[in-house]
């Protein structure tokens, strides 16, 4: 987050900076604590406002995937994998709830 920015504003900005996508936030989805590196990862559910996206300066590659095509072994962060797993489980149930988790030290 930048000074003077809300968490949701940070999510919108970071998504644009890293994936070139303009998004609309639906709501908070998950908070992953990673104490051994002094970080908290906060994830929001949202929708793309337009179908346009591109790899930003901080990303090597971005893409949209069908569920069965998600490149699980290529995801950069364990917190992202954990969040996606919970998102897919909630989607299968037809309801979304807020998730909180902790990642242990390696």
- Which CATH class is shown? Alpha Beta
Content of β-strand: 15-25%
What is the averaged pLDDT score? 96
Q: What would you give as the CATH superfamily?
A: Nucleoside Triphosphate Pyrophosphohydrolase
Rounded to an integer in angstroms, the radius of gyration calculated over CA atoms is 14 Å
Given helix and strand content, the structural type is alpha+beta
Q: How many domains in all?
A: 1
What is the correct CATH architecture?
Alpha-Beta Complex
Tally of alpha and pi helices? 2
Overall, the morphology is: globular
Largest sheet: 3 strands, mixed
Please report the distance between the alpha carbons of the first and last residues.
Answer: 26 Å
What is the tally of beta strands? Answer: 3
CATH topology: Nucleoside Triphosphate Pyrophosphohydrolase
Low-confidence stretches: none
Describe it for me?
It is globular and about 35 Å long. The protein is of the alpha+beta class. It has a three-stranded mixed β-sheet with strand order 2-1-3. It has two helices and three strands. The protein has one domain: Nucleoside Triphosphate Pyrophosphohydrolase. The mean pLDDT is 96.
Label this structure with key terms.
3-stranded mixed β-sheet, globular, 3 strands, Nucleoside Triphosphate Pyrophosphohydrolase, 2 helices, single chain, alpha+beta, 106 residues
In brief, what are we looking at here?
By secondary structure, the protein is an alpha+beta fold. It has helices at 7-19, 78-93, and strands spanning 23-34, 39-48, 99-102.
């Amino acid at each position: 987050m930048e000074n003077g920015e809300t968490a949701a504003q940070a999510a919108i900005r970071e998504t644009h900076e890293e994936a070139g996508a303009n998004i609309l936030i639906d709501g908070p989805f998950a908070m992953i604590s990673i104490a051994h590196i002094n970080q908290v990862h906060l994830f929001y559910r949202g929708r793309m406002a337009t179908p346009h996206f591109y790899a930003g300066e901080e990303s090597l590659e971005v893409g949209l995937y069908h569920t069965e095509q998600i490149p699980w072994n290529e995801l950069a962060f364990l917190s992202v994998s954990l969040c996606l797993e919970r998102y897919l489980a909630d989607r299968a149930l037809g309801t979304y709830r807020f998730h909180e988790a902790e990642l242990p030290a390696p």
